[in-house]
Amino acid sequence: QVQVVESGGGLVQPGGSLRLACAASGSIWRLNAMGWYRQAPGKQRKLVATITSSDSTNYADSVKGRFTISRGNAKNTVYLQMNSLKSEDTAVYYCNANVNTGFWSRDDYWGQGTQVTVSS
User: Fold this and answer.
1) What is the pLDDT of residues 33-51, one digit of tens each?
2) Which residues have a Cβ under 8 Å from the Cβ of 14 and sit 6 or more positions away?
3) Cβ–Cβ < 8 Å for 6, 94
4) Region of residue 108 (phi > 0: left; psi between -120 and 50: alpha; otherwise: beta)
5) Residue 111 burial (CB count, 10 A)
6) Rounded CA separation 91/39 (Å)
7) Which contacts (CB < 8 Å, 24+ apart) does range 103-110 have?
8) What is the average pLDDT across 62-84?
9) Which is nearest to 91 in space by CA: 21, 40, 15, 19?
10) How confident is the model at residue 23 (pLDDT cuts 50, 70, 90)?
11) Which pLDDT band, with edges at 50, 70 and 90, does 74 fall under?
């Protein structure tokens, strides 16, 4: 079993910054990639940023130049530094870990989500 836990959400004014953290733990045979997704009220969950085991990154166009995804010293942790936040960044942010729990078993695991609200 794999657990994914996020932290760091909250309320911030437009133009401000927040840093989200995520840690994956449990029966991890190989951690393939981790990423952040977000879901605004009434909308579908969308990709924000991903990072692979070789530290290759990918960003949604809407956050390029403002958000940065990175790994911690412990490779099962990932951070999302969010700068120049806008009201449209308001959403529940979910961490995803793509994990092999064995040679033949590969699945996506999700955290419980953390609320980010950008408002004055």
Assistant:
1) 999 999 999 999 999 999 9
2) 85, 86, 87, 118, 119, 120
3) yes
4) beta
5) 21
6) 5
7) 103/29, 105/29, 106/32, 107/2, 109/2, 109/3, 109/4, 109/24, 110/4
8) 94
9) 40
10) very high
11) confident
> What pLDDT is stored for residue 37 in this prediction?
98
Tell me if 40 sits within 8 A of 48, measured CB to CB. Answer: no
Q: Which residue has 């980010």 as its token pair? A: 116
- Three-state DSSP class for residue 89: helix
Of 81, 117, 118, 79, which Cα lies nearest the Cα of 95?
Answer: 79
| pLDDT tens-digit readout, 87-99 | 999 999 999 999 9
Residue appearing with tokens 């809407």: 62
| 110: nearest Cα among 37, 9, 20, 19 | 37
| DSSP-assigned letter for residue 29 | S
